[in-house]
Amino acid sequence: MASRDDIKFLSNPKIGQKRKKYCRFKKYGIKYIDYKDADFLTQFINEQGKILPRRISGNSLKYQRKVATAVKRARHLGMLPFVADLMK
User: Fold this and answer.
1) What is the pTM of this model?
2) Mean pLDDT for all residues in the chain
3) Which superfamily does CATH assign the domain made up of 30-77 to?
């Protein structure tokens, strides 16, 4: 029987492993989310312009609510689109 060291992988063996999600706001001590910073807010929306859920973005509940409010304010002012085709 071949050991694990003898097996040559055709693809990266770490593909299936999940990395630990973290809230970037707690980690870096960000208290205020600026709705006027559209470049920062685009990290939390997908290609169609929808807000990413917590389970994907890794935000805590407190900051996910603040992100959602900031994205909605930016949309209202026209800094972010309500609907988009391949935004990123």
Assistant:
1) 0.75
2) 86
3) Ribosomal protein S18 (4.10.640.10)
